[in-house]
Design goal:
By secondary structure, this protein is an alpha/beta fold. The protein has 24 helices and 24 strands.
Length: about 725
């Protein structure tokens, strides 16, 4: 099989010669119907994108970004949004694409979009007109891809977006409670693009337009492909087991004669499968790979196979640990995982976009509105972000329960100040009904803009899972001056009355720059600031890779000081998670008492949601901690699996809700902590009050006590649970 070997991993996004169809110009909206194609003078689409979201032509919606990006390369791009998946009719609406179908579930994973953490069906969908639920199938990438294949069997299918990205290898599936195969196999797609996929997608599009097949595209960064055999000439780091023994020489059989000249020390297990291989594969056990000088460009790591990880949770945790250690695009190696007779070949992560490339992506000609076909229907996700600006991508926090790092990477990719301020002005001029308030300048986090490693050499060699845990790395630039300056310039733009910050704040970083905190608190907090300590107890925080609660206390002190200086009364709204791996009921009790002591009565609380490929999900499935070396005797992690137990832990967060008191009283009794039941300031929930009755209750004719209360009498049953 031929292979495209030219390295375009750092080629500038906008340096490719444009496809011939650029002569058609820019579409006002990417067409969703044949009538729109006719109006544009198109006889066909070069690329058709299928998405589980409504089409909103805005840079916060993935399909708009991808569509406009491909359009800028000269391709004619059509969109099929939220198609009826019960037949192929909707998938044929725009005809057969000349090059390929691009398939995504949308901005959210379709399963998380459809089900709560308690596996209840959600009643709305923020990415659908009028918030109507049920407009996309479960496992949308698989379903959409299969319908595309049915509609046009020979047309290549490229899958991407967060749902495909987080399912690129064998992954634990919370909804079926089992390990599933890579979505690349289940979807019958040709290639999978993971992470922010502009580089890979532009390369794939130009290669297909040049007449190459996807089967030739085995070495494009940020992609995963299916192979029959791994290529010859590579070195394999064998990471398929976790119990490598020390060197033991095999005991010879004294009754067996072997001709010494016929023996071979070759270790190529694929030699028989590929007899024409010019160079055998060299295999090195994982414990020994550091003792060998290996060429990264011709070295891959073999993960335990799908058949192994689906039946061995410890191996699953080990595979998860290895994958996360290979996330730095500058030193990551190819990963390979056997799925039955096929090999999933996962190329290195994409090289992050440079600032001018980020600007180019966000400066594309978006209409910044939903497609006109939706009429007056409200799309909740659009209403939420229509006056917000995304200033950066990526997150180096590495929180184990979060999928941002797995999808967008740890290296921060930032836009220029000029590009951001230009978008603020566009919002002012283009968004209908704009009131003068920018709802957010942020991204995955509010305050990682332009924060990166001080040393390019160190960054390229680093394998830390987090730049801020267990402590903030000494090589990390924590100076927020660029963000502070951006805030000041944004609020000085004519017509802008207020710039709010709604993205999550990494407060342990903010503590390093009091000037930034003062700017934030004085001008960009509207009474409340949301932050996420997630828990109070070190036992849980260590499994989350989150800082100590003392960092929160320190930040609150600074927040209150600057609020008072500004003459404002403002509050922090902390977010917490229940039932995270490593959390005992005793930890939740301590958190509940901390909340009560600090007079917090949270309304919106979370139960841990095991999203695909997250490290915390590996903990949940395996009961082991992949933050450390995994062995069969390694650290066990306590897991809360039963829905009822998960609800108990969640109830500790809402200790003030009298509906939870019976549940909490019983839980406290089971824990032997009845001392926490009572009306004292250091107790969590009040004791159950006995009904006030005078004399025996009147009896019904059948002899049973009546439930009717005497007219005008006080009903103690209604009052007994009042605080």
């Amino acid at each position: 099989m031929s292979q495209i070997t030219t390295d375009h991993s750092t080629r500038h996004l906008f340096s490719y010669p444009k496809y011939w169809a650029e002569c058609y110009g820019t579409a006002p909206y990417l067409p969703m119907s044949r009538a729109e194609m006719d109006a544009l003078g198109w006889d066909s689409c070069d690329i058709i994108l299928v998405t589980g979201d409504a089409y909103v032509d805005h840079p916060s919606f993935g399909m708009a970004v991808i569509g406009r990006m491909l359009e800028s390369q000269g391709f004619r791009v059509g969109i099929i949004a939220q198609p009826d998946w019960h037949s192929t009719k909707a998938f044929k609406a725009l005809g057969e694409p000349n090059l390929f179908f691009g398939v995504t579930a949308g901005n959210m994973d379709s399963m998380i979009n459809a089900y709560t953490a308690d596996l209840r069906i959600r009643t709305d969908d923020a990415y659908t007109p009028d918030g109507v639920a049920g407009k996309r199938p479960d496992r949308a990438v698989i379903v959409y891809s299969q319908r595309c294949r049915e509609a046009y069997y020979k047309t290549p299918i490229v899958i991407g977006g967060i749902e495909a990205s987080l399912r690129r290898i064998a992954q634990y599936d919370y909804w079926s409670d089992k390990v599933r195969k890579s979505v690349l196999i289940d979807s019958n797609a040709d290639i999978l693009l993971y992470g922010n996929a502009e580089r890979a997608l532009v390369e794939v599009a130009h290669q297909i337009s040049a007449g190459h097949t996807i089967a030739e595209m085995t070495r494009i960064r940020g992609t995963a492909v299916l192979l029959d055999n791994v290529p010859a000439g590579w070195t394999e780091i064998d990471s398929t087991r976790i119990d490598w023994p020390s060197k033991i020489d095999a005991m010879p059989n004294p009754y067996e004669y072997k001709d010494p000249e016929s023996q071979s020390c070759a270790t190529d297990r694929n030699a028989d499968a590929d007899p024409q291989a010019a160079s055998p594969i060299r295999i090195i056990p994982m414990p020994l790979h550091r003792k060998n000088d290996l060429d990264k460009d011709t070295t891959y790591i073999r993960l335990p196979s799908y058949n192994k990880v689906k039946s061995d949770p410890a191996l699953y945790a080990h595979a998860s640990r290895v994958l996360h250690q290979e996330s730095n695009p500058h030193n990551a190696r190819v990963l390979v995982q056997k799925h039955d007779t096929k090999e999933i070949w996962i190329n290195e992560p994409p090289i992050p976009l440079e600032t001018d490339e980020m600007d180019g992506v966000f400066d594309l000609p978006y209409q910044r509105r939903p497609h006109p076909s939706y009429g007056d229907a409200k799309i909740p996700a659009y209403d939420m972000i229509k006056t917000s600006v995304n200033i950066m991508r990526g997150c180096f926090g590495g929180c184990t329960f979060c999928s941002i790092t797995e999808h967008e990477g740890r290296i921060i990719q930032s836009r220029s100040e000029e590009s951001i301020l230009k978008e603020v002005a566009l919002i002012r001029d283009q968004v209908p009904g704009f009131t003068g308030t920018i709802s957010d300048l942020g991204g995955p986090t509010a305050n990682m803009y332009r924060l990166n490693c001080k040393s390019e050499t160190i960054q390229k060699n680093c394998r830390r899972l987090s730049c801020v845990y267990p402590t903030i790395c000494q090589h990390l630039d924590t100076d927020h001056k660029h963000t502070t300056q951006l805030y000041r310039k944004a609020r000085m733009i004519p017509g802008i009355k207020r710039v709010a910050i709604a993205s999550g704040l990494r407060y342990d970083l903010a503590l390093r720059d009091p000037e930034y905190v003062e700017e934030l608190v004085t001008h960009h907090v509207g009474g409340y600031l949301k932050i996420a300590p997630e828990h109070s107890e070190e036992n849980t925080l260590s499994k989350m890779m989150k800082p100590s609660i003392s960092s929160y206390d320190e930040f609150k002190e600074m927040f209150d000081k600057f609020s008072k200086k500004a003459g404002k009364v403002q509050y922090l709204i902390p977010y917490f998670i229940a039932a995270h791996p490593g959390t005992e009921n005793s930890d939740m009790l301590s958190l509940g008492l901390w909340l009560k002591k600090n007079k917090f009565r949270p309304d919106q609380v979370q139960t841990f949601y095991p999203s695909p490929m997250a490290l915390a999900t590996a903990m949940y499935h395996s009961g082991r901690n992949p933050l450390k070396k995994v062995t069969y005797k390694s650290e066990k992690v306590s897991i809360v699996r039963q829905i009822e137990q998960r609800r108990i832990q969640k109830a500790f967060l809402r200790y003030h809700d009298e509906k939870n008191w019976p549940l909490l009283r019983q839980a406290l009794k089971d824990m032997g902590r009845e001392d926490m039941i009572g009306d004292g300031p250091h107790q969590l929930v009040p004791a159950e009050k006995k009904s006030a009755r005078h004399g025996p209750a009147p009896k019904r004719p059948g002899g049973k006590p009546s439930t009717a209360k005497p007219a005008g009498k006080f009903d103690a049953r209604k009052a007994r649970n009042r605080p």
